[in-house]
């Protein structure tokens, strides 16, 4: 037998991340270590709650630098901390609930609370813990070094009087601005830190995982950016949104350059590709003077703010927030990625002669071009859009069977970029299911549901093949609508919109996820209502005259 290599697998207590001591400098934090009996003496007094050792507790936390001891859980919720966001005064631990008792912290604490879960979940676990199930949880987690809830004899916990000072400071909470965190500008959590002198509040989330005070990102800016806690009525130099109203994002500034930006805008991708434009787009700090409308929302683009513009020199620009919206951008930063040569897309048919083709959807037979001349001719339906062939309409008919494609659908490209989706879409033929042994019985087609108009169909459709988007499917009618759409059903141009509103056709906003918006009228039209209008308007008999696609 050949020998196998042996690898050292460290025990869990060696690989476990040590929590920081929250009394230490955030820039150079001390680490807490676990102390267990009988290797170490029992806890003498908890710095947080002033309680003594819990008899049924297997370990406690100790900071060798500060020479302080903490119950499990109490090492997170210190009665007082110093913060870089408010260096002038210490911050006092405070609860929104005036009846909150600090003694329940070490009782409700479970080690799962110290994991990388959100601080909001941690707070809810400590404050809203179900005491009736505490004993069961303690027994179930005994193998994971979990403490059982102290019994009547285990009264080592403190009384929690250290929190009473903050409860009496009701005046500091009487104004709306004081009910928000000064760091992230979000509403106060159930547990937070407070300075009664300055009316300064800091959410527990921001105190436990504070954002960096400085950010150095050379791809964005040559200087180091500094956290700017004062919210002013000023637009972000990248996205144009106001720094104090439109978002709760943190603000960073370069004062020598008069630059103020949201934290998320610092890390925007440098080069992207979206389906609404055939070329790559690059993030730029400004544009040449001119009138630009956003390629998504159609509102004016401020040439003095950051936005994405075409690499090839097209007069195309789009707001940074619009361009990186999850419905529009595929999430890939193309900065430094060489542009691939244009992909060859196989044509939908092979031309045999002037009037004869071999279509990919019906490759076994040739198809010949015809024109429907009279109403007395046999009704024919296009296999792609399932619409009837109208008088004077040109279509391709199979020379050996009843397969029909009108001229517009026969020319549909096999791959397109569509403004309703962030990935390219591929043309598919709906398969048939031959479930009958009798040749005289009809062949059943697979039915699909179009995600655009929510209608069921059995014709051709465009489908996404990217992982996670396999269910995105559009019938050829929805996939072929141009952006903008110009039609007699409305006096102005209609643009595709994802946000939506009240449809002027059906009076609701729930019948479809996709809308067309009139920028001038500030009105919306749901996609499936639009298709009904197109089908019944008297000035357009042939719906195929509307079809226009953008090919790769």
UniProtKB/TrEMBL annotation:
InterPro entries, per the entry: DC1, Vacuole_Formation_Reg
Domain of life: Eukaryota
Protein name, UniProt field: DC1
Keyword Repeat included in the entry's annotation: yes
Limits of the DC1 domain: 219-266, 276-323, 361-410
Residue span of region Disordered: 135-157
Biased segments, Acidic residues type: 135-155
Species the sequence originates in: Arabidopsis suecica
A Pfam family hit: C1_2
Entry keyword set: Repeat
Repeat found in the keyword field: yes
């Amino acid at each position: 037998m050949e020998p196998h290599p042996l690898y050292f697998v460290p025990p869990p207590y060696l690989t476990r991340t040590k929590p920081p001591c929250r009394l230490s400098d955030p820039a150079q934090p001390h680490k807490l270590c676990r102390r267990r009996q009988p290797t170490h003496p029992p806890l003498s007094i908890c710095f947080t709650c002033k309680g003594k050792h819990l008899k049924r507790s297997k370990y406690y936390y100790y900071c060798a630098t500060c020479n302080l001891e903490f119950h499990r859980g109490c090492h997170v919720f210190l009665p007082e901390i110093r913060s870089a966001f408010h260096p002038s005064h210490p911050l006092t631990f405070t609860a929104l609930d005036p009846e909150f008792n600090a003694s329940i912290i070490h009782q409700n604490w479970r080690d799962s609370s110290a994991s990388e879960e959100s601080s909001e979940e941690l707070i809810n676990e400590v404050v809203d813990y179900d005491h009736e199930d505490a004993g069961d949880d303690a027994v179930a987690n005994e193998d994971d070094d979990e403490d059982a809830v102290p019994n009547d004899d285990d009264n080592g916990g403190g009384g929690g009087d250290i929190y009473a000072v903050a409860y009496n400071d009701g005046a500091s909470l009487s104004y709306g601005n004081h009910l928000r965190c000064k760091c992230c500008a979000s509403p106060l959590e159930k547990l937070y830190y407070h300075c009664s002198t300055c009316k300064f509040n800091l959410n527990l989330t921001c105190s436990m995982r504070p954002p960096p005070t400085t950010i150095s990102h050379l791809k964005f800016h040559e200087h180091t950016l500094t956290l700017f806690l004062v919210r002013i009525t000023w637009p972000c130099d990248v996205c144009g949104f106001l720094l104090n109203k439109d978002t709760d994002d943190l603000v960073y500034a370069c004062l020598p350059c008069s630059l103020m930006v949201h934290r998320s805008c610092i890390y925007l991708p440098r080069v992207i590709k979206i389906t609404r434009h055939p070329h790559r787009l690059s993030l730029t700090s400004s544009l040449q003077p001119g009138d630009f409308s956003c390629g998504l929302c159609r509102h004016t683009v401020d040439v003095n703010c950051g936005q994405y513009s075409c690499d090839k020199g097209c007069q195309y620009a789009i707001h940074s927030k619009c361009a990186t919206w999850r419905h529009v951008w595929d999430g890939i930063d193309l900065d430094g990625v060489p542009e691939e040569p244009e992909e060859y897309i196989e044509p939908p048919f092979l031309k045999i002669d002037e009037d004869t083709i071999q279509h990919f959807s019906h490759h076994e037979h040739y198809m010949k071009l015809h024109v429907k001349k009279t109403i007395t001719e046999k009704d024919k339906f296009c296999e792609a859009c399932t619409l009837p062939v109208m008088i004077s309409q040109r279509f391709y008919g199979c020379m050996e069977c009843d397969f029909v494609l009108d001229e517009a659908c026969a020319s549909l490209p096999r791959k397109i970029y569509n403004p309703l989706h962030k990935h390219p879409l591929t043309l598919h033929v709906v398969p048939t299911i031959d479930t009958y042994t009798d040749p005289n019985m009809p062949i059943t087609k697979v039915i699909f549901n179009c995600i655009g108009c929510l209608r069921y169909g059995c014709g051709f459709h465009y489908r996404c093949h990217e992982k996670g988007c396999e269910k995105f499917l559009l019938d050829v009618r929805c996939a072929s609508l141009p952006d903008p759409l110009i039609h007699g059903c409305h006096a102005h141009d209609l643009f595709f919109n994802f946000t939506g509103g009240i449809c002027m056709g059906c009076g609701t906003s729930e019948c479809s996820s996709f809308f067309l918006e009139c920028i001038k009228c500030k009105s919306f039209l749901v996609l499936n209502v639009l298709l009904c209008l197109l089908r019944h308007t008297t000035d357009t008999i042939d719906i195929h005259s509307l079809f226009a696609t953008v090919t790769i």
